[in-house]
Structure formats: structure tokens, C-alpha cells
């Protein structure tokens, strides 16, 4: 191996072992040394160390195991990971200012808040991969939340949306809500694929239609635009259930987290192991070449928007279950956060580039920054400024990499 190169796997393994040993040492020395203000930091270090060590073992012997050590390589590393490095610095600052941030409970709250956002971002990434977008995503979340919540209220609730509706099985309203979103998703796909309408305009028009239709439904008597409450316990459990709860010692893992993990695995499989997934990348990379290669662009674009809308519907149903209610304003602006998370996670606005792992990282980065700033009582106005700066930097980095290519 050349002098200016090192083994990536060896670096990850050695650093992981060092972090692991440090975490174990702090875990056992925390009480006698009086270091109680570090809270669950030793556990976090142990988890990070184990992940780094495992990653090193898994990447050993692979073609990309060589790590170049040069000024150019270091500059590219800083450029490609600027947002992640900034987040790590911010987390360190937050932990210094407010050590309570280093708790397992806080980490679980961040993962719970990220779950529905991640499902939505996974949907919108399909439209970004073909160099498009979907401005109707947030309104579909609201539509699914309102439809599912309106049909899953307790029989004794005074202000029922449908007073004479019998107690239906849980799955029925959920399926209806998701199908309603998929119908509008098909409309998006048809406008883009059939008339070659720019996705920005097509989805903007459908966004307005969805909000109007949802508001009309929400305003139906006897509800008359009142917030929907009185959600059935079995539906609320779908978004509020805790797994492996151990009382005050361990609050448990929200059911939303494993649901999001399962959906991540499914989307990863679709994008990487199916013909449809390969077609998505091909259309985003070069649509003309995809047509020449015999790819049915119309059918694939329809499939992209329908699949994306299905994920929006799932996110909306889970959001209604998590909050035990819904209004017609649910999901407002969610699509912008999802797009921003995808871009931060490495999904190119030019199309054809993006991975599920990057999207997961992008959603977590945004959630950690937002949660952390709230944790140290930063003004909501400043939070918006910081979010805007992150989006601008992420897009600038994306365009810089695109120009280099």
C-alpha cells in the first residue's frame, strides 16, 4: 500500500476499539469519580465503538478499503461531510451547555420524531431521483390523517365526525386513507408523464386541489371544521405504543421506530434490487438514454408518484395515531423539510443520485439540530435561520459536485 494511503477498515476498527474501551471505562468509573453529569455518554460511546468496529470488519478487503491521505482528499472529505461535521460540533456544544442532552431518553425521542419524517422523505426521494419534486406531499399527509382519524373515533365521543358510523375494523379506514393519497399520486404522475408537465407545477396544482378537497371534507357537518379528537385506543396505540418499556429506567422504544426501519429496508430493496429501482436511477440520470434503452418512462413515472403517495399516506396515518387527532392543516410545509433532508442526505436535485442511508442521515441531522436547539432554548426564529443556512449550504455543495462531474 502506498505511503499516502491507509486501510479504511483498519482505521474504523482501531478507532472503534478505542471508543469502545473509553465507553466501558467511563461506565464503570462514573459513580466513584462523581461523573454523574455525563449521564448516558458511556452507553453512547459503547454503541458508537461497536458500530465503528463492526463497520471496519465488514469493509475489510473491499475495493473501497483504501483511504487516500492528501490535501485534496481531505478537502473533498470536508466538502462532502460539511453538514455532518457541523452537526457534530453543535451536538458537542449542546452537551456542554446542557449535559442532560446525553440521555438515552433524548435519543429515543429524536428517533421517534424522525420516524414519520423519514417515511415521508423516502417517498419524496423517488421524485427527486428523477430530477423532479413533489409539493403535494405535505397535504397528502394531512389528507390521510383527517380521513383515518374521522373514521376511527370512539363510539362515546360527543363530537363524532360520523355519528352513525359503526365501529369498523382498524385496517379499513387506514387503507381508505392510503388509497385516497394514491389516487392523487396517480394524478401527479399522469400530469408529469403524459403531458411532460414540470413536476413543480403539476404537484403545486395537485397540492391546492388536495387542500381544498380535504378542507371540504373536514368542514362537513356535524364536524364543521372542528379538530378531530376522541381517537380509538387501538388506533392511538399504532403511534404511541412503547416496546421493551422498563418503567423510569427505560421508557421503551416507540412502535414508530421499527415501522420506519422496516419501510427503510423495503425501499432499499426496491431501489437496489429491483428493475423498477434501476429504472428510477436511469430515468433520473438521463431520460433520453432511458427511452433509447427501452424503459417505459410513462409507466415508471406513474409508479414513482403512486409509490411516493402511498408512503405519504402511511406517514399521515401514523402522525394522526401519534398525536391522537387531526385537522386539515396537518402536514403543512412537511414536504419542504423532507426535500431539505433528502438534499442534506446526498440526494442530488439533478437526479439519478441518492441512497437510503443518506436519506436516513439527512432526516436525523435535521431532527437532531431542531431538537437540540429547542433543548437549549434557542429562539424559534433563530432555528428557522439556521435551517435555511443548512439548506443553502447543502444545495451549494450538491451543485458544486454536479459541476465537477
Which characteristics define this entry?
405 residues, mainly alpha, ABC transporter involved in vitamin B12 uptake, BtuC, 2 domains, two-stranded antiparallel sheet, 16 helices
Explain this structure:
The protein is mainly α. The chain has 2 domains: 1-54; 82-404, ABC transporter involved in vitamin B12 uptake, BtuC (Orthogonal Bundle). The protein is built from 16 helices and 4 strands. The chain has helices at 8-29, 41-59, 71-80, 82-97, 104-129, 137-150, 171-195, 199-218, 233-240, 256-273, 275-285, 287-292, 297-323, 334-344, 356-375, 380-404, and strands at residues 5-7, 66-68, 242-243, 253-254. It has a two-stranded antiparallel sheet. The longest helix is centred in the C-terminal third of the chain and has 27 residues, at 297-323. It is globular and about 65 Å long. The two termini are 28 Å apart. The mean pLDDT is 88.
The secondary structure category is mainly alpha
Mean pLDDT: 88
Find the count of extended strands (DSSP E, 2+ residues): 4
β-strand percent reads: under 5%
Query: Number of DSSP helices?
Result: 16
Helix share bin: 55-70%
Order of helices and strands: EHHEHHHHHHHEEHHHHHHH
Amino acid at each position: 500500500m502506498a505511503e499516502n494511503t491507509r486501510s479504511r477498515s483498519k482505521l474504523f476498527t482501531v478507532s472503534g476499539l478505542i471508543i469502545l474501551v473509553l465507553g466501558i471505562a467511563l461506565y464503570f468509573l462514573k459513580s466513584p469519580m462523581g461523573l454523574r453529569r455525563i449521564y448516558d455518554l458511556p452507553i453512547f460511546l459503547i454503541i458508537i465503538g461497536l458500530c465503528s468496529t463492526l463497520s471496519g470488519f465488514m469493509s475489510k478487503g473491499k475495493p473501497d478499503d483504501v483511504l487516500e491521505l492528501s490535501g485534496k482528499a481531505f478537502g473533498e472529505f470536508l466538502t462532502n461531510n460539511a453538514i455532518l461535521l457541523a452537526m457534530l460540533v453543535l451536538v458537542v456544544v449542546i452537551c456542554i451547555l446542557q449535559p442532560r442532552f446525553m440521555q438515552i431518553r433524548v435519543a429515543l425521542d429524536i428517533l421517534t420524531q424522525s420516524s414519520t419524517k423519514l417515511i415521508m422523505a423516502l417517498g419524496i426521494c423517488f421524485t427527486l431521483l428523477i430530477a423532479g419534486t413533489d409539493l403535494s406531499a405535505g397535504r397528502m399527509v394531512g389528507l390521510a390523517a383527517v380521513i383515518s382519524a374521522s373514521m376511527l373515533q370512539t363510539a362515546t365521543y360527543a363530537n363524532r365526525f360520523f355519528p352513525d358510523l359503526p365501529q369498523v375494523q382498524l385496517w379499513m379506514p387506514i387503507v381508505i386513507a392510503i388509497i385516497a393519497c394514491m389516487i392523487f399520486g396517480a394524478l401527479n404522475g399522469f400530469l408529469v408523464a403524459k403531458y411532460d408537465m414540470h413536476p413543480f407545477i403539476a404537484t403545486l396544482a395537485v397540492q391546492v386541489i388536495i387542500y381544498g378537497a380535504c378542507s371540504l371534507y373536514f368542514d362537513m357537518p356535524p364536524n364543521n371544521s372542528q379538530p378531530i379528537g376522541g381517537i380509538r385506543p387501538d388506533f392511538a396505540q399504532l403511534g404511541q405504543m412503547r416496546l421493551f418499556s422498563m418503567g423510569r429506567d427505560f421508557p421503551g422504544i416507540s412502535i414508530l421506530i421499527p415501522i420506519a426501519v422496516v419501510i427503510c429496508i423495503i425501499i432499499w430493496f426496491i431501489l437496489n434490487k429491483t428493475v423498477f429501482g434501476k429504472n428510477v436511477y436511469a430515468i433520473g440520470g438521463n431520460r433520453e438514454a432511458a427511452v433509447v434503452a427501452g424503459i417505459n418512462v410513462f409507466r415508471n413515472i406513474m409508479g414513482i408518484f403512486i409509490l411516493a403517495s402511498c408512503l405519504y399516506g402511511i406517514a399521515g396515518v401514523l402522525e394522526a395515531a401519534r398525536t391522537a387527532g387531526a385537522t386539515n392543516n396537518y402536514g403543512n410545509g412537511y414536504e419542504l423539510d423532507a426535500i431539505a433532508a433528502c438534499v442534506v442526505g446526498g440526494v442530488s436535485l439533478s437526479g439519478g443520485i441518492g441512497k437510503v442511508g443518506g436519506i436516513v442521515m439527512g432526516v436525523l441531522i435535521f431532527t437532531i439540530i431542531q431538537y437540540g436547539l429547542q433543548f437549549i432554548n434557542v429562539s424559534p426564529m433563530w432555528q428557522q435561520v439556521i435551517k435555511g443556512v443548512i439548506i443553502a449550504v447543502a444545495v451549494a455543495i450538491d451543485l458544486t459536485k454536479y459541476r465537477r462531474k
